[in-house]
Each structure stands twice: as C-alpha cells, then as structure tokens.
C-alpha cells in the first residue's frame, strides 16, 4: 500500500469531507477544493435520517447493501468524528416507525419484513394498540407500523461542521469559496485552477461535486447524468419529548431532534439550481403531516429551507475509478442519501486509493455506466 499520496478532492459536501477525513486518517496528503462554502448544499439541508430499511422497500440489491453497511458503520464512525474534531453533534439511535393507513398495506409490510429479516433487521409489525405505547400522539387513522430499532438520525448541519473540523485537525487543507474551479490537466498529473489563477496539483483526483458533477462530462468524455433536485423541508419547535421515533409514511417523514424541533421532509421538485423555498413546496408537507400527528394541524413551522440533492438517472450514486484513468475516482450523485452513505463511501474511496478490497461490490455504481 502506497502511503501519503497527494490527493485533491473536488467538492466539499458531506461526501467530499467524509472521504477527506478517511484518507487523512490513513496518512494521505489531502486538499478539499470547493467553489462555495463547505457543506452548503444538500449536506447542510438534510434531515439526517439513517433509515435504509424504511426508505428502501423493494429489493435487497447492492444499493441496499451499501446503505445498510453504512448504517452499521455509523456507531463507530460518529465517535471517531467527534473524537478527532472535538465537536459534539447529535447522533440518536431513536428507531423508526414505518406507518400505514390501509389494510391493503399490511401485506406489503409483511413482505418487506420477510426479506429485511434476512439482513438482520430486528423488525416488528405493531398494531394500532401497540403503537399507542410507542407514540401516544400518533393519529388513530394509522392501523399499523413496522418498528425498526436500528434506524437512527444525526443533526446534519452539526455533523458536517464536525467533519470539516476533524479534517482540519488531521491536516487536510480546505480551500473553499473559490467561486470557480477548472480541471486543467487530469490524464497524468492532476492540475486544478481556481478563479484569480490559484492552482492545485496532485497525483489523484476524487470527484465529489454533487449536483455540479454534470459539468465535467466534456472533460472526461463520459455521460454524467447528475441533476439537482430541490428538496424542501420545514421544522416545528418546542416539542421536547412529544415525538420519540422517526415516523415514515408514503407521503414523507418526521424526525424529532434533541433540541426539541421536529423536522418534516421532504417535498421535491425540479427547479435547476434554485434553492428558494416555495409556498407550494411547504404546503405539500403541511397538507398531510397532521395525518401522522394531529396536533400539527394547529401549528405553524418556525423554519423552512431547501437544498439541492444530486440525483442520477437511475437513482444510484457514482462510486469508482475511471477505467481509462484509474487515478480519477468518482464519489458523487448520492441524491437523498449523502448523510447516510458518507461513512461507507469514504471507506470505499480510501480502499480504492489504497488498493484494498471493498466489502460491498461497487459494480452497480460504475461512473461510466451511462456512456
């Protein structure tokens, strides 16, 4: 294993920072290069759910395995980030409830339970009566829910700040607010140039530029169908202890945070790179959330925000080396799962750099698969 490679990471979102953290721990010389502020887009705007069982209903493919592996890395990973950053952030193993309203949905829950149990999910389908003990204020219209004790959540803005600080403490150079960054050379040596002529060189490049990755198609002569999807979220305050679990339904989700807020997400639309909050987008949330917790009908969200999620054409991230240029590694297009997938992506990227095997097969995530 070659130690101490000079590595440039293009993009300072959660995936870029997590990769820098893991590579920094392994002794590489890492520079993170970001046009805007680190963690400013999808990362800081996320609800922070670590809930692969709730979110992936159909089929245990390699993507599900990647998500599950990442969930199971989190208990150790978050301790390392806290220890190396000297920063605290909320990581709560709250468990989750995947709630349904109709008899017809019960069969789907049981089918889901059958395959998820093969992956070690300690699930239980709770009846309406049992649910009342878990969440006393749930709507009586909910007839059952799957309980996933393993699912958790983090407070995303603080987690991303801690990752950035941990990187700095490890000696990672972070160059952000550069406005523009161009790839000047990449076939052998890597050379990037920022506005006003500042240049960066390295032996290897990690592409983690999220919703902006599409701009690199001409440079690498491959199709990179990563597009921004605007996700809008709102939150309610002063709800200490009233909601204990992540509650997930087909309409969306609610996540209780340690600071007494309840995060409600997410309505999605295509709006290019616009991150403004729209009345219509927030109404998509407020029009149904009281069907989970009736007390929300009387409340007005105290905070509303939006972020851009980098979605690929098939919904799977791009993770892997370029075949024609193996010193270029892609780690981008994580859509709604950047926070969840940050540990496993970082470990996968570092293993690719160090020539080590990855536990989860990466074939499904090949960067060239759309070309």
Textual characterization of the structure:
The protein is an alpha+beta fold and 371 residues long. The chain folds into two domains: 6-51 and 157-226 and 314-365, FAD/NAD(P)-binding domain (3-Layer(bba) Sandwich); 92-151 and 227-312, D-Amino Acid Oxidase, subunit A, domain 2 (D-Amino Acid Oxidase, Chain A, domain 2), CATH 3.30.9. The protein has nine helices and 20 strands. The protein has helices spanning 14-25, 52-55, 62-85, 103-117, 128-134, 156-169, 217-220, 279-286, 338-354; strands spanning 6-10, 29-33, 49-50, 91-92, 96-100, 124-127, 144-148, 152-154, 173-175, 181-185, 190-194, 199-202, 204-207, 226-236, 246-249, 252-256, 262-269, 303-312, 318-321, 328-332. Strands 6-7-5-15-16-17-14-18 form an eight-stranded mixed beta sheet. Strands 9-2-1-13-20-19 form a six-stranded mixed beta sheet, with helices on one face.
* Proportion of strand residues: 25-35%
Low-confidence stretches: none
Structural class estimated from helices and strands: alpha+beta
Q: Architecture of the largest domain, CATH level 2?
A: 3-Layer(bba) Sandwich
Order of helices and strands: EHEEHHEEHEHEEHEEEEEHEEEEHEEEH
Rg from alpha-carbon coordinates:
21 Å
Q: CATH superfamily assignment of the largest domain? A: FAD/NAD(P)-binding domain
Helix content: 25-40%
């Amino acid at each position: 294993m070659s130690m101490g490679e000079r590595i440039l990471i293009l993009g300072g979102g959660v995936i870029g920072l997590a990769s820098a953290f893991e590579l920094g721990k392994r002794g590489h010389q890492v520079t993170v290069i970001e046009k805007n502020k680190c963690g400013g887009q999808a990362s800081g705007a996320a609800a922070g759910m670590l809930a692969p069982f709730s979110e992936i209903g159909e089929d245990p493919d390699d993507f599900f395995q990647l998500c599950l592996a990442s969930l199971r890395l989190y208990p150790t990973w978050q301790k390392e980030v806290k220890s190396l950053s000297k920063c605290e952030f909320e990581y709560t193993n709250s468990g989750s409830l995947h709630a349904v309203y109709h008899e017809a949905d019960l069969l789907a829950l049981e089918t889901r339970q059958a395959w998820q149990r093969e992956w070690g999910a300690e699930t239980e389908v709770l009846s309406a009566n049992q649910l009342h003990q878990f969440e006393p204020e749930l709507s009586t219209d909910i007839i059952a829910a799957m309980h996933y004790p393993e699912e958790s959540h983090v407070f995303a803005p603080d987690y991303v700040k801690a990752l950035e600080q941990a990187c700095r403490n490890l000696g990672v150079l972070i160059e952000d607010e550069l406005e523009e960054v161009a790839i000047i050379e990449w076939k052998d040596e890597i050379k990037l140039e920022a506005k006003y002529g500042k240049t960066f060189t390295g032996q290897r490049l990690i592409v983690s530029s999220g919703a902006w990755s599409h701009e690199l198609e001409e440079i690498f002569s491959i199709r990179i169908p990563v597009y921004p999807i605007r996700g809008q979220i709102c939150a309610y305050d002063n709800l200490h202890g009233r909601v204990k679990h992540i509650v997930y339904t087909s309409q969306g989700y609610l996540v209780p945070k340690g600071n007494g807020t309840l995060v409600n997400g997410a309505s999605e639309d295509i709006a290019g790179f616009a991150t403004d909050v729209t009345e219509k987008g927030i109404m998509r949330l407020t029009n149904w959330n009281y069907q989970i917790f009736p007390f929300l009908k009387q409340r007005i969200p105290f905070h509303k925000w939006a972020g851009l999620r980098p979605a690929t054409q098939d919904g799977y991230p791009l993770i892997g080396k370029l075949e024609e240029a193996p010193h270029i590694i892609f780690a981008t297009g994580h859509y709604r799962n950047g926070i969840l997938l940050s540990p496993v992506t970082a470990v996968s990227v570092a293993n690719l750099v160090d020539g080590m095997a990855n536990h989860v097969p990466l074939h499904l995530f090949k960067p060239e698969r759309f070309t």
